Amino acid sequence: MPVELEPTVLVVSGVAIAAYARAVRVLRRRGRSTPRRQQAAWYGGVALVAVAVVGPSGAYADELMSAHMAEHLLLADIAAPLLIAGARTPVLVHLLPPRLLVIFARRRAIRAAFGALRRPAVAIGVYAVVLYAWHLRPAFEGALRSEALHAFQHQSFLAISVLVWWSALEPGRGRMPGELWKIGHIFAARMVSVFLGMAFIFGGQAFYAGVYGSTTQRYGLTPLADQQTAGGMMMSLDVIIIMVALTLFFWRAAADFDRREAAAARASEEARPAAAPEPAVTPEAAAGEPAVSAARPARRG
């Protein structure tokens, strides 16, 4: 299995793993445990980033568009949401060293810019612009001819995916709230990708023949068939993500509704005034006879 060992990717992956392990240790010392599935999400996301770049998809990216597409899908569509899920608060505030975190926290311009970019409508707009710009022929083929530009392309895809998923997964909260608008948000973002995949499938010509015009033949594919395979991969993963998002956010919304109903019922029960004690029932009253007062004078004669 071909592998392209890139020291930069390995170093960045190692730093990400070490920083997360440090955050988990700090929280453990403070009496807070990090769920195993949350840790698995982070480590799985880091592993997918490394596999996408140095694994088979990266090795064949210069020869097959379908391999190049697999690289992008692993990075942006699978690894990004896993990383966000793994970084959920309180881990999020301990990922960076305290001094570096303070520097970012004090930069109001940085915080304001990120706050604006991660708004759902803005994030989807940025996602669409960046995604389509990189798939224009000059940018796409230029990234394949330049390692530095290719690395920047990967970083761009990962960043725009983080923007889209951030508002949906809300890592700044300890628990992800269930809100049904998030289904529409993820659906809209995936449709941006679906339309691009449809263009690859039904475009009728190979868009990147300048780089894939001759390399696909050694694998028994024409450039157009390779491009259509890449488009099919995009659309298939988009459908899977939409279904997962639909299930996840409906389930979270139902769980939150049940939790609110239970809390309201408890609050209503606690606010209800205590019932007044019932008067004692005498044996005569129970038998249907009028009670005789003890103060009634006795009859004479």
From TrEMBL:
<keyword id="KW-0812">Transmembrane</keyword>
<feature type="transmembrane region" description="Helical">
    <location>
        <begin position="230"/>
        <end position="251"/>
    </location>
</feature>
<feature type="transmembrane region" description="Helical">
    <location>
        <begin position="148"/>
        <end position="166"/>
    </location>
</feature>
<dbReference type="InterPro" id="IPR019108">
    <property type="entry name" value="Caa3_assmbl_CtaG-rel"/>
</dbReference>
<keyword id="KW-1003">Cell membrane</keyword>
<dbReference type="GO" id="GO:0005886">
    <property type="term" value="C:plasma membrane"/>
</dbReference>
<keyword id="KW-1133">Transmembrane helix</keyword>
<protein>
    <submittedName>
        <fullName>Putative copper resistance protein D</fullName>
    </submittedName>
</protein>
<dbReference type="Pfam" id="PF09678">
    <property type="entry name" value="Caa3_CtaG"/>
</dbReference>
<feature type="compositionally biased region" description="Low complexity">
    <location>
        <begin position="273"/>
        <end position="301"/>
    </location>
</feature>
<feature type="transmembrane region" description="Helical">
    <location>
        <begin position="6"/>
        <end position="28"/>
    </location>
</feature>
<feature type="transmembrane region" description="Helical">
    <location>
        <begin position="187"/>
        <end position="210"/>
    </location>
</feature>
<keyword id="KW-0472">Membrane</keyword>
<feature type="transmembrane region" description="Helical">
    <location>
        <begin position="40"/>
        <end position="61"/>
    </location>
</feature>
<feature type="region of interest" description="Disordered">
    <location>
        <begin position="266"/>
        <end position="301"/>
    </location>
</feature>
<feature type="transmembrane region" description="Helical">
    <location>
        <begin position="117"/>
        <end position="136"/>
    </location>
</feature>
<feature type="transmembrane region" description="Helical">
    <location>
        <begin position="73"/>
        <end position="96"/>
    </location>
</feature>
